[in-house]
Amino acid sequence: MSIDCWLDDPVVPREPIKRIKGRSITDRIHDYTVIDIETTGGFTDCEIIELAAVRVRNDKITDTFSQLVKASEPLPPFIVNLTGIDDAMLADAPPIADVLPRFLDFVGNDVLLGHNVASFDSNIIYDNCAKLGLRRFDNDMLDTLRYVRRCDTGSPDNKLTTLTAYYKIDHENAHRALADCIANHKLYQIIRDMYNGTEKKSIADNDT
């Protein structure tokens, strides 16, 4: 998928770039890496404050990655309330320039599974990779938000927190990246065989 966007950098003049991303797939897969990020806001020009990934092989978690990331400005109160991450927790965290290469090494060339990963997480990671001169973030993705819209779940909406509550999946520390990764992995294991290809959207179902 190719999307016009802008690199937002106050020092370097803004120039249009193309996101040349991987495929968005709906295959039934058993080997993948779940990813999730927490950020300073809900738009692509926000900062990453937490990166997490969970490697899955033959449907089992085999390794995890989790790292807080230093922000350049104080966190908005909304983000503190949502995630539980505060400025004190980020005071000694490494910058994104140190964390992102390690994250990329961890995920490798795996298919990436995430909730709204195709429209949110992957775009922010992609743009940060471009700013830092890192490799293009073009892994194929399975977006469980898009996937669940084509499943007969009976859930009142498609938010990750709603779905995990509906299926009684342990999801303590929701809106922390590693907890969301693990919960999303468990959700995919449940919904994987419900896919029927017919899209059904619901109100406010783009929650990550």
Give the helices and strands, then pairings.
Elements: E1 2-6, E2 16-20, E3 32-39, E4 48-57, E5 60-68, H1 77-83, H2 87-90, H3 96-107, E6 112-114, H4 117-132, E7 141-143, H5 144-148, H6 160-166, H7 177-191
Parallel strand pairs: 3-6, 6-7
Antiparallel strand pairs: 1-2, 3-4, 4-5
Describe this structure in words.
The protein is an alpha/beta fold. The protein has one domain: Ribonuclease H-like superfamily/Ribonuclease H (Nucleotidyltransferase, domain 5, 2-Layer Sandwich), CATH 3.30.420. Helices cover 32% and strands 21% of the residues. A five-stranded mixed β-sheet has the order 5-4-3-6-7, sandwiched between helices. Strands 1-2 form a two-stranded antiparallel ribbon. β6 (112-114), α4 and β7 form a beta-alpha-beta unit. The longest helix has 16 residues, at 117-132. It is globular.
Number of helical elements: 7
Name of the CATH homologous superfamily: Ribonuclease H-like superfamily/Ribonuclease H
CATH-level-2 architecture: 2-Layer Sandwich
Instruction: Give the overall silhouette.
Output: globular
Strand order of the largest sheet: 5-4-3-6-7
The fold-level CATH name is Nucleotidyltransferase, domain 5
Radius of gyration: 17 Å
Summarize model confidence as the mean pLDDT.
90
Number of strands: 7
Largest beta-sheet characterization = 5 strands, mixed
The unreliable regions are 1-14
Q: Could you spell the SSE succession in H and E letters?
A: EEEEEHHHEHEHHH
N-to-C span: 21 Å
Number of domains: 1
Oligomer state equals single chain
Strand content: 15-25%
